[in-house]
Amino acid sequence: MREAILAVRIERSFDKSEILNIYLNQIYYGHGSYGIEAAARVYFGKKAMSLTLSEAALLAGLPRAPSVYGPFKSLRLARRRRAHVLRRMLEEGYISPRERARASNVAIQLVRPSPEDGYADYANEEVRRKLERRFGATTLYRGGLRVQTTIDRRIQRTVNAAVRKGVIAVDHRRGYRGLVGRVPLRSTEEVFWRRVDLLTEAHRKWREVRGGRWEPAVVHSVRWDEARLRLRKGPAVMWREDVAWARPLNLKQSNRGVELENLGDILQAGDVVLVERREDEENSNGARPVRVTLVQEPLVQAAAIVNDQRTGAIRAMVGGYDFDRSKFNRAVQAVRPPGSAFKPVTFSAAISEGWTPSDLIIDAPAIFPNLETGGDWKPTNFGRKFYGPTTLREALTLSRARQGPPTIFRMPGSSGYPRFIRWGSGWAWTTNRLWAKARRAPAPPCLSGWISSGPHTKTFRRRISGARRTLRWSISIPRPVPAFPAMLLAAPFRPL
């Protein structure tokens, strides 16, 4: 009802050309462009008045689904959508058959043949959220703001690659989760690939598939050390050493160190899988079988933030494996277990008592009662070994689990847990945030760069320019920090 009333009021206040003008200047065209003028500059690098019939038809077809028909994501679908717009223009009498034929045959020439799409999506989305909260949606989307970022493109790309490489490595250690689907091998070429397209329809939106790095393949024959496959552009071959990680999935163990012995354990004729061409095969012309390797979508996630310790400027942010699949930013929105993040506070308390980096701590087994569960807690190192006398420097460097509050504050000469409690309570702790150090005590030198006095602020965007003014403004990104481990405060020590 509200929309109907609004439509009536709009028609009474504006004529058709004015309504169309408002619509064209506010609708989303994809790739971060709102309005026809912005879309013309983003896709073709020119003003809207300079667009050709072919270019204008392509942009006119984007508002329905810019994430699907965007030319940066799929030229094939963009051409199909452009053809639909040109056909409708012909049917309505706006163009002649000759103009339609000429515009349909024009190749799509984008301003960048390979756009840098999504290299900082998580950072951009975090800033967008903060900007909307700070200035409001009207100013953000209609105010003509120009935002300068502290993100470093080179560092961001490096972090992107490192996170993705690490996530894929972790996923490979868990083994192969299985095929996409199955198709009968005995069918015509058209029917065959139509079935493959139906099975892989959901995968076409993935960044790797859109960019051509991953592609569907059908297993034709399998031997113990070799598999023959069919790609859309020709034959392919997969060798066992290229997919040694793809052992059958076993959830009871990480399978670290186990390799695939027989390709027949994971592949059969008719299986539809996703593959990636090896780097030395990317320029193959299809005259011979190309060598490919098996790929799968990782289920694990990761996050990373890189900041300049001198200025606090954020240089890179990654909040997950792929922004298109999961927009949840794990770098700033996730609340994760503390782990070893609390150790710098522990060691800083020891240093404030007069401990030196060369002082020795005994790394030995011990048991503590868990006041929350009623059971026992036995801290162990990562390798499940104990190393005896260890210097404070080595314990902090190697993050030894036993060189923490249980040992440091029970050593002879230590003031014990009361001192540790007073030191820890000097920090403003909440369930998952560390906002500030108490003003009465400066941050210790060993925590310099890890924490700052006052609100923990990281500069994300450093300047926002509007039509009439320039505002220098920073976004505060609080670093997730654990709650204070109360179970250690009154736990009596019981050596093994």
Tell me what the structure shows.
The chain has 496 residues and is of the alpha+beta class. Among the domains are: 2-104, Orthogonal Bundle (Penicillin binding protein transpeptidase fold); 178-295, OB fold (Dihydrolipoamide Acetyltransferase, E2P) (Beta Barrel), CATH 2.40.50.140. The chain is built from 16 helices and 20 strands. The protein has helices at residues 2-13, 16-24, 36-44, 53-60, 66-69, 75-91, 97-104, 121-135, 137-142, 153-173, 189-199, 207-210, 343-352, 392-397, 405-408, 417-425, and strands at residues 28-30, 33-34, 146-149, 181-182, 214-222, 226-231, 234-239, 271-277, 290-295, 304-307, 314-318, 360-363, 366-369, 376-377, 388-391, 427-429, 434-437, 461-465, 470-471, 494-495. The strands form seven sheets. A five-stranded mixed beta barrel has the order 5-6-7-9-8. A three-stranded antiparallel sheet has the order 3-18-19, with no helix packed on it. The chain has a three-stranded antiparallel sheet with strand order 14-13-20, with no helix packed on it. α4 (53-60) crosses α6 (75-91), α6 (75-91) packs antiparallel against α7 (97-104) and α13 packs across α16 (417-425). The longest helix is centred in the first third of the chain and has 21 residues, at 153-173. The model is unreliable at 428-459, 466-470 and 475-496 (pLDDT under 50).
